[in-house]
Amino acid sequence: MEPRSTVVLRSQLALLNCSAVGVAGSKVSITWRKDGAEIVSDGAGRVTVLANGSLAIRRFCKKRIHETDKGVYECVASNDVGTIVSRQALLQCAGRFRVAKFIHCCSN
């Protein structure tokens, strides 16, 4: 399974799916790249490669410092036979809509 481009609401969970099966039962290792660079877990559990190979980003684009969450992601599957890279998936932030308040003014 390869990741798909998607738009995620700000502060929500972003989940990119990836899975691969090795030939003759060989173990497959899944890593991720963002904009061509390997993703390293942030240590706080906000960015995590799950046991099934999917990438989870908690509180996606929540703060200005997380604006860098947006970008092009790739899943990389490797085993003793070789390495294969998934198609690219564009991950984008969507802001929350705010409901406008109408102020009544000046009654006739």
Features:
single chain, 108 residues, mainly beta, Immunoglobulin-like, six-stranded mixed β-sheet, three-stranded antiparallel β-sheet, 9 strands, 0% helix
The CATH homologous superfamily name equals Immunoglobulins
> What's the CATH first level?
Mainly Beta
**Mean pLDDT over all positions:** 84
Total DSSP E strands: 9
Question: What number of domains?
Answer: 1
Radius of gyration, Cα only, in angstroms?
A: 19 Å
Q: What string, H for helix and E for strand, traces the elements in order?
A: EEEEEEEEE
Inertia-based shape: elongated
Structure annotation, total helices: 0
Portion of residues in beta strands equals 35-45%
Distance between the termini: 64 Å
**Which blocks of ≥5 consecutive residues have pLDDT under 50?**
none
Helix content: under 10%
Global structural class: mainly beta
Query: How would a textbook summarize the main sheet?
Result: 6 strands, mixed
Please give the CATH architecture. Sandwich
Briefly note the CATH topology name. Answer: Immunoglobulin-like
How is the topology of this model organized?
Blueprint: E1 6-9, E2 14-16, E3 29-34, E4 37-38, E5 47-49, E6 55-57, E7 71-78, E8 83-85, E9 89-94
